[in-house]
Amino acid sequence: MGKTKSVLVLTGRVINQAVSFIVFSVLDLVDFLLCFVYKLADFFIEDEWKPCYCCSGKEAITSSGKILVSERGKSKIVCLCSSKLQLEEISDTLYSRPSLVSEVSNFTVSELKRLKEDRAFNAQSCEKIKNGTVRSTFKVNSTIVEMLQGKFGRQQFHPIPRWSDCCCKICTSWTSSSKETLFVRAEGPRDKAREDVLFIHGFISTSAFWTETLFPNFSRAAKSTYRLFAIDLLGFGRSPKPTDSLYTLREHLDMIERSVLEPYKVKSLHIVAHSLGCILALALAVKHPGYVKSLTLIAPGEQGTQYVMRRVAPRRVWPPIAFGASIACWYEHISRTICLLICKNHRLWEFLTKLVTRNRIRTFLLEGFFLHTHNAAWHTLHNVFCGTASKLDAYVDAVREHLKCDVTVFHGQDDELIPVECSYNLQAKIPRARVKVIEKKDHITIVVGRQKFFARELEKIWRKSG
After folding, report:
1. Among the options 270, 372, 374, 443, which is catalytic?
2. Could you confirm whether 178 is annotated as catalytic?
3. Is 252 exposed, middle or buried (0-12, 13-18, 19+ CB in 10 A)?
4. Mind listing the pLDDT tens digit for each residue in 411-444?
5. Do strands 84-89 and 76-81 pair parallel, antiparallel, or not at all (unpaired)?
6. Which of 24, 159, 293, 414 is the S-S candidate for 442 at Cβ 3.0 to 4.6 Å?
């Protein structure tokens, strides 16, 4: 029986790899063709060529109003904000997603560029030797030169949704307000609250992940003791979705501070975060160490940019959640097409879902999946989940050495998106962290379906840490 099982597992793995190779080779070609389709569509509908990361990461970044100061490796961009310059890190996975089609085309282009640079370098070296002097030189990005020449201010940006995004009242409600802050659902006493609790949702989700599950199940004592804040992250749900944003870690943190910490004068805070939200929770805790009383992380991820791409999005057709993650991570234009079909028409899909189910089930998970734009999802996935995953070591070290807050980690045993080993690796780096693996639960059902029991667990954590 053991040999038979191992043979079947090996056979299934080989079949999965073979089918995956064929499917993703076709998807590489489809995404390559869609690149030209969207360039033409953007040009005819919006009168501009919208750059993408297939051709030039530099163009895609600088077109958003940011200044690229390093194009490869650990890239940084400069953001002009009133009278100060701010550095933000972007992920190399935005422009380093190899495929069969891109590798062939990029190899040809890079070889031609290399030959041209070699000739220029040889000519310059001969000139230096001839003159008998050697001078150090440096290159200034052309965008900075254009800004200094006064050309930068004439660029037109689009803070409102583009033609491929939804323009309904829910998705554009933030454009009618002069103050851009996140959508915040707040519950609990305003003046007599002892402590505050911030809930941060995961990727392609909204605050409803918490308000529809945990909020109704907290005890009266908890509701009278704690102020509960559930937010829609920047680019998701009812929060702003600016098209000129790169949705970096700094932008997400700034919006959380501006929307929750500052207006509500938060001084004592418990943080509950799920999946991608765990990265933001750790970064927020490190930035405000005196505020945080406890950290509750649900299905936290792993470190490393390209490692995250390979681990979470392995370019495999099975399991289905890995296939979906691979589409979202690897294919800029296919994922934009999916957003065009689903998110732009989310009202139709919501109506059909309620019609088919006859409203027998709540649709908050589907609504959270619909309410975002491709620009927000694409950049958040790469610049937060993939890009800043490399910072997790520093965040974890800071939590272990400088913070005294309680750390509790929950993980579903059947989680196919983020392996349980990630939570155990986190515990190894923060020995005081408690890891609870929930049997027969996955990435979503670790909360949804066991919300009453989970609400009681959270209350125990808050009481203990308080």
Report:
1. 443
2. no
3. buried
4. 999 998 888 998 999 999 999 999 999 999 999 9
5. antiparallel
6. 414
Q: How far is CA 293 from the centre of its chain?
A: 25
402 included as an active-site residue: no
Residue 275 designated active-site: yes
d(Cα 460, Cα 466) in Å, to the nearest integer?
A: 10
Residue with tokens 């851009």: 180
- Candidates 432, 439, 352, 351; CA nearest to 399 is 432
**Catalytic residue flag (residue 443):** yes
- Indicate the pTM of the whole model: 0.83
- Active-site entry in 275, 294, 326, 465: 275
Out of 42, 75, 99, 201, pick the active-site residue. Answer: 201
| Residue carrying the six token digits 């691979």 | 326
Buried b (16+ CB within 10 A) or exposed e, 260-285: bbeebebeebbbbbbbbbbbbbbbbb
The 10s digit of each residue's pLDDT in 308-339 is: 667 778 888 988 888 988 898 899 999 999 99
Pick the catalytic residue from 28, 31, 165, 415. Answer: 415
Sign of CA dihedral 285, 389, 93, 370: negative
